[in-house]
Amino acid sequence: MGDSEGSILNFSVMEKIAREGYLSVFKDYGVYGIVGAVVVAILIPLLISMVFVGKKKMKQRGVPVPVPGEAGLVVRNARSVRLIEVPWEGATTMASLFEQSCKKHARERFLGTRKLISRDFVTASDGRKFEKLHLGEYQWETYGEVFDRACNFASGLVKLGHDVDTRAAIFSETRAEWSIAFQGLFRQNITVVTIYASLGDDALIHSLNETQVSTLICDSKQLKKLAPISSSLSTIRNVIYFEDDETSRDSNVSRHTDNWSVFPFSEVEVLGKNNPVHPRLPIKTDIAVIMYTSGSTGLPKGVMITHANIVATAAAVMTVIPRLGKNDVYLAYLPLAHVFELAAESVMLTAGAAIGYGSTLTLTDTSNKIKKGTKGDASELRPTLMTAVPAILDRVRDGVLKKVEETGGFPKTLFNTVYKRRLAAIEGSWLGAWGLEKLLWDVMVFKKIRSFLGGEIRFMLCGGAPLSGDTQRFINICMGAPIGQGYGLTETFAGAAFTEWDDISVGRVGPPLPCCYIKLVSWEEGGYLTSDQPMARGEVVIGGCSITAGYFNNDAKTKEDFKVDEMGMRWFYTGDIGRFHPDGCLEIIDRKKDIVKLQHGEYISLGKVEAALISSNYVDNVMVYVDPFHNYCVALVVPSHQVIEKWAQEAGIVYKDFAELCNKDEAVSEIQQSLSKVAKAARLDKFEIPAKIKLIPDPWTPESGLVTAALKLKREQLKAKFKDELQKLYQ
Questions:
Q1: Measured between alpha carbons, how far is 69 from 83 in angstroms, rounded to an integer?
Q2: CA 369/CA 104 separation, integer angstroms
Q3: What SS3 class is residue 633?
Q4: CB 145, CB 108: distance < 8 Å
Q5: Which residues of 565-595 are buried (b: 16+ CB within 10 A; e: fewer)?
Q6: Rounded CA gap, 379 and 477, in Å?
Q7: 12 contacts 710 by C-beta, under 8 angstroms
Q8: Residue of 578, 576, 580, 608 whose CA lies nearest to 593
Q9: How far apart are CA 193 and CA 292, in angstroms?
Q10: Ramachandran sector of residue 552 (left: φ over 0; alpha: ψ -120 to 50; beta: rest)
Q11: What is the CA radius of gyration of the chain?
Q12: Which Pfam family, an example, fits this chain (predicted)?
C-alpha cells in the first residue's frame, strides 16, 4: 500500500519475501534432489506415525476471579494471582526503568542505525524517478551511551529555555533519535505528545494546539511541512530537528522564524553536555505520554498514558515471551507514534535487547528503496524478534500462494504437499511431520523464505487488528516461528491479552496479560450475553494497571468509556465483543459500532463481512455499507491491480487506464462473483453478501486519511468521500 515512509507498511515488500525465496529452492537443489528428499521424508514418518500419541490435557491459561461489585464474567491470567505492576522493584516509571536498564546493560548493544553509503535515483520507463539507497552495516550505540545522550538532550532542552511545565511533541518517522528524545524528556518529567508522521495538517494543528506544545521535535521531512501551517501553531517556541544527509547539505534550514527558533538535535545534545542540569524525575502517576490516535472517526483523541501504565505492560509481556533477554535482536520499523510499536520497544528496553531501526521501504533485499546488490534491513540485522500488523502477514501469505499458483507443475504440487503435512503436524493429526521430516522441509523449502527476514526469527508479535487463522498457520509454517497475537488499545497502552508461545490454536488473542483483568458484560441489544452457551459472550471490558487516565481535554468521552469501581479499580469499555474459551483465552468476535440493522430487522456485522470478502484474490480493500432503510448491503471495493489486470488481459478486455477498467461492467461482474464465492465459503447469510459494489481505483492509505496507521477503515471519512457513489448503489 503506497510508497510513503509514513505508511505503517509497504505491501510489495512482503509479497516479494516468499515469492523469490520459494523459487530459489528449485535453483539450489533441482527437481531430482527434492524428489529424493521427498521419498526419504515420507518413508521415515510412516514408521514414526505408528506410535500412539495421547491427547494432551487442556492447559488452563485464564481463570475466573471474583471482583466485588462487578457484573459479568471476570478473568485473570492463570499464572499470576496478583496483578503485575513493575518488571522489578524500583522501576515504577519509564525514567527509572530506563536508567536502571541502561546501568545493568551498560556495555550491551542497544540502538542500531544503518550507515548511508550512497543515494542514487533510477528513472523508470514512464519518466518517474525512484530513490535507491546503498546502506551499510548497522552502527550500534550501547545502553550506557544512549543513556548519556538522553541526559545530554534533556539538559540541552532546559538550557534552550524550554519550560519544564509545558509539553514537547515528537513528530517523526521511527528512528534511534526518536527513542533518545523520548527518554530524555522523561529526565525532566516533561509529558511527551506523540503524533503520527502521516497525520494531515488539520489533525496536526489540532493535536499541537490542544496540548499547547512549546517544543516540537521532528525529522527533516516533517520540518518542511511546518512552514505552510506555522501561522496556525500558536504555542510552539522551539523546533528541534533530527539531522540526516539532506538537512546537513540544506543551507535553507532557517534557524529562526517569526514564530519559533530552530535547532539541530546534535546541537542541543552538545549544549546539554556542556551545561548539565540536575534531573527532575516523575512519579508513577504522572502523565508520560499524550498519544494521539489516528482515529477512525473525526479528529484524533489524545490518550493520557501514565508512567505506571507503560511499565505495567512491559512487565507483563516480559512474562509471556520465553527467554527474552540481551541475546535478542529486534527489528523496529513500525511507527513509534503507534501504541503497538512503542509498547514493543519498551519491552525490549526492559529485557536489555538490541533494537535495530529500519523502514518499510528498506526492509528486505528487494524493497523499493534498496539498491540492487544491497542487503535489506532484515538480512543485515538478522533479528530474532519483530512485530507485524495482520495486513502485512496477509500479504505474505497471498504473495506466496499467488507465486505457487503461477509456477504450477511439480513446484506447486511439492509446496502444497509439504504445506499440508506441516499443517497436519501443527494441528496434531500427523506425528511424522515433526522430527526429521520437519528438518528436511525447513532446509529444502522454507529456509529460503525465512532468509528474507534474516533467517533467525524465533517469535513474531502481531497486533493492531484481528489475524485470520489461515494466515497465522501459514506464517507458523513458512516462517517457522510462533506468533504472539496481542489484543489491546491505546487506552490500555496495548496491554490486555496476549497469546502464549506454546498455544498453537488460531483465531484467539490469548488470556489476559498479568497486568490486568478482562471481563465480559452482556450486550442485550446485540444478542451477546454472558449466559450464552457453550461460551460466555459480551462486551470486552479491561481493568487494572495498564488502564490509562482518559482522554486529554475531553471529560465527557472519558466518563463514557472509563469507569472506576467501588474497589478503586479503573475499567475501560472497549466496544469490542468477545467470548472466553474454556481455557480462559479470549476471542474477539465482533464490534458494537460495526453492527448495523437492515430494514427488516436483520443485524449485519460489517467487520465480519469485510473479513470474509477481503480473502478474495481480487480485493485489496473493502468497506461494506448499510442503509437502514433498505434490506441489503453494498460495498466499496479497491481491486488488486495485478490480479484484475491479469484477468482483463486474459479476457480480452480493452481499456486505457485502471480507472476505466474499474468502471467496466465485466470487471464489476467478475469481482462480484468472486465476493459471492468467498462469502458463501465463509457461510455468510444471503443478506450479508453485498447486492451491489463499486470499484475504487485508488488505494486507501494513511496519507489519504481513509485508513488509520494500523490500516483500519475510517468509516466516516470513507462515507463522506464516497457519498455519491454509495447513494448510487442504492438507486
A1: 18
A2: 37
A3: strand
A4: no
A5: eeeebbbbbbbbbbbbbebbbbbbbbbbebb
A6: 20
A7: no
A8: 576
A9: 7
A10: beta
A11: 26
A12: AMP-binding
Of the listed ranges 103-117, 239-253, 423-437, the least confidently predicted one is 423-437
Q: Is the pLDDT of residue 33 over 60?
A: no
The cell for 573 is 469499555
Category of 298 on φ-ψ map: left (φ > 0), alpha (ψ -120 to 50) or beta = left
What is d(CA 644, CA 639) in angstroms, rounded to the nearest whole number? 7
- Within 13 Å and on the Cβ side, how many CA atoms surround 565? 15
DSSP E strands in 143-277: the ranges are 167-171, 192-195, 213-219, 238-242, 261-264
Using the predicted structure, report yes or no on whether residue 107 has a pLDDT greater than 70: yes
Element (H, E) at 678: helix 665-681
Q: Which amino acid is at 211?
A: T
Task: Specify the pLDDT at position 148.
Answer: 98
Q: Give tens-digit pLDDT for 442-501.
A: 777 788 778 878 999 999 988 877 787 888 888 888 888 888 888 999 999 999 999 998
Per-residue pLDDT band for 259 (boundaries 50, 70, 90) equals confident
For 665-687, write each residue's pLDDT tens digit: 999 999 999 999 999 988 888 88
Please report, as a single letter, which amino acid is at residue 729: L
Q: How does pLDDT run across 525-573, given as a tens digit for each residue?
A: 888 899 999 999 999 999 999 999 999 999 999 999 999 988 889 999 9
**Helix, strand, coil % in the chain, rounded to nearest 5:** 40, 20, 40
135: three-class secondary structure by DSSP: strand
Alpha carbons 502 and 525: distance in angstroms, whole number? 37
First-to-final CA distance of the chain: 32
SS3 27: helix
- When pLDDT is cut at 50, 70 and 90, the band that residue 304 belongs to is very high
Fill in the DSSP letter of residue 223.
H
720: number of Cβ within 10 Å? 11
Half-sphere exposure (Cβ direction) of 686: Cα atoms closer than 13 Å: 1
Given a contact cutoff of 8 angstroms between Cβ atoms, the answer to whether 80 and 319 are in contact is yes
The C-alpha angle 683, 689, 691, rounded to 5 degrees, equals: 160
User: In the 3-class helix/strand/coil scheme, how is 545-581 assigned residue by residue?
Assistant: CCCCCCECCCHHHHHHHEEECCCCCEEEEEEEEEEEC
Q: How many CB atoms lie within 10 A of CB 90?
A: 11
Record the cell numbers describing residue 404, joined without a space: 505457487
Neighbours of 510 (CB within 10 A): 26
pLDDT of residue 68: 63
> What 3-state class would DSSP assign to 238?
strand
Decide if 225 contacts 200 (C-beta within 8 A): no
Cα–Cα distance for residue pair 669/677, rounded to 1 Å: 12
Q: Which helix (H) or strand (E) holds 112?
A: strand 109-123
Measure the CA–CA gap between 667 and 707, rounded to whole angstroms. 25
Domains contained in the chain, CATH given: 1-93+309-478+485-591 (3.40.50.980), 144-282 (3.40.50.980), 598-729 (3.30.300.30)
Dist CA 642 CA 646 (whole Å): 6
Q: How far is it, in rounded angstroms, from Cα 197 to Cα 207?
A: 12
pLDDT value for 69: 59
Closest CA to 395 of 9, 72, 4: 9
**Residues contacting residue 385 through CB under 8 Å, at least 6 positions apart:** 321, 328, 329, 330, 331, 348, 353, 457, 458, 459, 460, 461
Helix (H, G, I), strand (E, B) or coil at 707: strand
Give the torsion sign (CA, 394, 397, 402, 405): negative
Residues 6+ apart with CB under 8 A from 636: 622, 623, 625, 693, 694, 696, 718, 722, 725, 726
Whether the link from the prior residue into 534 is cis, omega within 30° of 0, is yes
